[in-house]
Write a structure and sequence with these properties.
With 390 residues, the chain is of the alpha+beta class. Helix 1 runs antiparallel to helix 11, helix 3 packs across helix 4 and helix 5 crosses helix 11. It contains 12 helices and 17 strands. The chain is 34% helix and 20% strand. The two termini are 34 Å apart. The protein has one domain: 4-Layer Sandwich (Chorismate synthase, AroC fold).
Length: 390
């Protein structure tokens, strides 16, 4: 299963085409729209979210609510397009009063992209490098999430830190799978703890008053996975490398940890590795999950737990200094409508990326033509593994 996205931040729409989808998979338009809404939510979002009301439009690959096994096209309209139709026109001459973007933002793709593509207008770069593109990713991953649900897999996320305000957890590897999605979604910052949520909101309020932006951390959790997804025979086959690449593809993500993560570097091996257990009922398992559900690039059957760190958004109300590309003089960086903090939204995008990687791992393991054969293959594998584990 693969997807490609197209579209600019202020163009008519964002488009995603998903190929390699098995036939016979039930798709819920309302579920995709729910995920798009979650991507727009979170305390600290900016004015763009009040303009857009993201809804998916599916134009191919599905008939009567089920996939045909052919490419699926999904579109999300940009409501702000009406205000940009002249400045972002596909054809014709540029308006006489067009203002080029020549004051690139530190921390953004503006300058390096302009140098790479030999353009004197950063608008030609920032429109596509904008995080607005992730709406198409979330829409595309709705297909993967529906598939995973049929495999018995649930993927969710929650925020653990915004600035210095952090969620206190005695053992995240134990606590993470037990959080309730409803508790997470009821929080304005998508944190399952009310006290921590209040501290995070206060951090955002302070940052807004200062004209600043804030980053943070979040976790993505996948429950219900079978053991043995991924591979050990090569680097690209390892699920860790695939998940890492997917998460780092999200704008502003600067760090990714699996399970205990960097903490493992300061511990003895006996404090890190998960002892193997065995019972007649459940077969092989582990007594702990410090590895976060991955060993040797493959799933262990325990919950997958991944933590990611997001840097502060580069666009700020009080911008940093930059250099005007026309005059070569020092000026303040350009300002787009932007968020103070988008960590809760980034966590939803990360869910989408993780879901796509996991869906592909199932398809590689159990086939990809149609849901009937895939489910039969999965059932046979579960039976075989359990028998071998006794």
């Amino acid at each position: 299963m693969q997807f490609v996205t197209a579209g600019e931040s202020h163009g008519p729409c964002l488009t995603a085409i998903v190929s390699g989808v098995p036939a016979g998979l039930a798709i819920s338009e309302s579920q995709i729209n729910s995920d798009l809404s979650r991507r727009q939510s979170g305390y600290g979002r900016g004015g763009r979210q009040s303009i857009e009301s993201d809804r998916v439009s599916i134009t191919s690959g599905i008939r009567f609510g089920r996939t045909l096994g052919t490419p699926i096209t999904l579109q999300v309209a940009n409501d702000d397009w009406k205000n940009w139709s002249e400045r972002m026109a596909v054809f014709g001459d540029a308006p006489s009063d067009l203002v080029r973007e020549v004051t690139p933002r530190p921390g953004h793709a503006d300058l390096v992209g302009a140098l790479k593509n030999a353009t004197d207008d950063c608008r030609n770069v920032l429109e596509r490098s904008s995080a607005r593109e992730t709406a198409a990713r979330v829409a595309a991953a709705g297909i993967a999430r529906e598939f995973l649900a049929e495999m018995g897999v649930e993927v969710f996320s929650y925020v653990t830190r915004i600035g210095t305000a952090a969620l206190r957890e005695d053992d995240p590897m134990v606590a993470a799978p037990d959080y309730k999605p409803l508790d997470i979604e009821l929080s304005e910052v998508r944190c399952p703890d009310q006290e921590a949520s209040e501290h995070m909101i206060n951090m955002i309020k302070v940052a807004r008053a200062k004209g600043e932006s804030l980053g943070g951390e979040f976790r993505v959790v996948a429950c219900g996975l079978v053991a043995g997804l991924g591979g050990f025979d090569s680097g690209p086959a390892r699920l860790t490398s695939q998940l890492g690449a997917a998460l780092f593809s999200i704008p502003a993500i600067k760090g990714v940890e699996f399970g205990m993560g960097f903490e493992a570097a300061s511990r003895y091996g006996s404090e890190v590795h998960d002892p193997i257990t065995q019972t007649k009922k459940h077969g092989f398992s582990r007594s702990t999950n410090n590895a976060g559900g991955l060993e040797g690039g493959m799933t262990t059957g325990l919950p997958l737990i991944v933590t990611a760190a997001m840097k502060p958004i580069p666009t700020m109300a009080n911008p940093l200094d930059t250099v005007n590309m026309d005059t070569m003089e020092v000026e303040s960086a350009s300002r787009e409508r932007s968020d103070v903090c988008a960590v809760p939204a980034a966590a939803v995008v990360a869910e989408a990326e993780v879901a796509f990687v996991l869906a592909n791992a199932y398809l590689r393991k159990f086939g990809s033509d149609n849901m009937t054969d895939i489910k039969a293959s999965l059932a046979s594998y579960k039976k075989r593994v359990l028998t071998q584990s006794r």
